[in-house]
Every structure is written in structure tokens, then in C-alpha cells.
Design a protein that fits this description.
Length: 295
């Protein structure tokens, strides 16, 4: 049963707080959009980050480093320790409609692969929704992987879940995991040929199923900072069994791997999927959009 004690707060106070938060977010987002457009390293951008970081860390302290967010039908608990974790937890990266669309199609018995799981904003609600199914969260970045595992543990889950350090790609071997920004909850890690980062194991999804006994997925979510087509190529042998895919597509970051967003959609169409563009994030993030591919 939902605990409704917090709902006893005076409605006028709630309205005032809501208005205050709305004004703050509009100001912060306006500053961010201006600096993104004109100069990403300008003093205004530095001011925005300083103010927003101070705000987020204050909220982290006030909540004791633990937040509960209702996603779909379930309350999900997340640990928060940084600005990135706080933002990712409170607004779900602007991906709430996508997460809820994925959850709505689950029947309970699926195997779900969350590729690029970060701290678990997809993995945890999926694990909470499934009954006899299973979920695998693939997260090669060590800090986020630790936070992902802890978030799964702190939610009362009976689902079979697994956390993997493997970076899925189109080849088996090793690669450098680089990052634009390092902090718990940050999602800017990507595979690179430049030796400036940590070395991680790479595997094709097909290899995991054939050689390591992973259960073939029914539903897949992919967020890999431009390497979407590399991951899909590595899953070529199993895609005929996949019912749905949810992808975060990065048109500019695809160029890191010599691919394009159009090639990603063409690959999925050729594999027999119908494509639905779900649109951009609902927060201020730009340069990215979401796609659902279904049979």
C-alpha cells in the first residue's frame, strides 16, 4: 500500500514549492540553452553548472542520499551522491515516456537486455515489472556498474537479474572506454580506439548467447553514445528472435564509428522491424532521439 503521509502537506505550501521549482528550472534551462548555443565554455555556462551543482548536492543531502521515484506502477529506490545521479533520478534523463512505453509492453516472462544500463533507470523498473522473466544490465563503466548493482539490491526484487561488465559491440576482444565526463550517474562513456581511458572487454551479443550461455533477449534497450549500429551488428544472429528494441540514437556521435542515424534505421528495417520515432528527450538534452523497433 502506498504511504500517503507525505500527502498531508498544506496544499498552498505545495503550490508555492511547485511554482518555485518550476521557476528555478526555467531559469537554469534557459541559461543552459543559451550557453549550449553560443559558447559551451562561457562564464555563464560555468555559473549555471555551479548553481545547479550546489542545488543538486543540497537536495542529495536533504534526502539522505536515497530517493524513491514512481516509474510505471512501482516505486523504485535509487542511491544519489552526485549532481549527475540526482538529475538522472529526478527526471530520468528525459526518458520517462520511453521507459514507460517499454514497461507497458512487458508481459512478465521476457528476457530483457539493457545495453548501456548506467545506474539502472531502465534495469530497475524492468526488474520490478517482470515476474518469471530476467533482465541483464550491461555497464562497462565501473562506478556506474557498482551503483547499478546496489540500486538493484536496494529494491525488493524477485526477478532474476544480472549485471555484466561487458561492452557489447561488433567484435570480440578489448577496447578503451573513454569519457567526456566522469561521475557516478554520468552517461558519457564510449568505446574508443584512442588509449585514453580504461580497457574493457567487448563481445558480440551473438557470442554471449552461443559461447557463454546467455538467454536470447526478447526486448532490448540500447544507449551506447553513438555505437548503436556496432551493437546491432553484433546481434545480427539473434535479432530474428527479438520482439522489440528501444534505442537512444545519437546522430552526431555516430560519426565516431563511421555510421549514421539513417543507417541504424535502415539496418532495423532490413531486419524486419517497423520503426517508430518516439522523439527527443523531455528535458533539455539535444542531439539525440529515441526509436522503437517492433515486429
Amino acid at each position: 500500500m502506498r504511504d500517503r503521509r507525505a500527502d498531508s502537506t498544506d496544499s498552498a505550501a505545495r503550490s508555492g514549492n511547485s511554482c518555485s521549482h518550476a521557476v528555478k528550472h526555467r531559469l537554469l534551462n534557459t541559461a543552459s540553452r543559451l550557453t549550449d548555443r553560443y559558447n559551451a565554455l562561457s562564464p555563464l555556462n560555468e555559473l549555471y553548472w555551479a548553481v545547479d551543482t550546489a542545488y543538486c548536492l543540497t537536495r542529495v543531502a536533504l534526502c539522505g542520499g536515497l530517493m524513491t521515484v514512481r516509474i510505471g506502477e512501482e516505486p523504485i529506490r535509487f542511491g544519489v551522491s552526485t549532481r549527475s545521479e540526482y538529475r538522472r533520478t529526478t527526471d530520468l534523463g528525459g526518458e520517462r515516456p520511453v521507459i514507460e512505453a517499454l514497461l507497458a509492453e512487458l508481459r512478465g516472462s521476457e528476457t530483457v537486455w539493457d545495453i548501456g544500463a548506467c545506474i539502472g533507470t531502465y534495469t530497475c523498473p524492468v526488474a520490478s515489472t517482470l515476474t518469471t522473466g530476467s533482465v541483464v544490465g550491461f555497464e562497462p563503466e565501473s562506478t556506474n556498474r557498482s551503483r547499478l548493482r546496489r540500486n538493484l539490491e536496494r529494491n525488493t526484487l524477485t526477478t532474476d537479474w544480472t549485471v555484466s561488465s561487458i561492452a557489447l559491440s561488433d567484435h570480440d576482444g578489448a577496447c578503451t572506454l573513454s569519457s567526456e565526463f566522469v561521475a557516478a550517474g554520468a552517461g558519457h562513456h564510449y568505446l574508443s580506439s584512442v588509449p585514453n581511458g580504461s580497457t574493457v572487454e567487448t563481445k558480440r551479443g551473438d557470442s554471449l548467447i552461443k559461447d557463454e550461455g546467455y538467454t536470447p533477449p526478447d526486448v532490448i534497450k540500447i544507449d551506447v553514445q553513438g555505437a548503436e549500429l556496432c551493437v546491432l551488428r553484433g546481434l545480427r544472429g539473434v535479432l530474428t528472435e527479438v520482439r522489440s528494441l528501444y534505442l537512444e540514437v545519437h546522430p552526431s556521435k555516430c560519426r565516431r564509428y563511421g555510421t549514421t542515424a539513417e543507417e541504424i534505421e535502415a539496418f532495423l528495417t532490413k531486419a524486419g522491424f517497423s520503426i517508430t520515432v518516439l522523439g527527443p528527450p523531455t528535458n533539455r538534452r539535444s542531439g539525440v532521439y529515441f526509436v522503437r523497433a517492433q515486429r
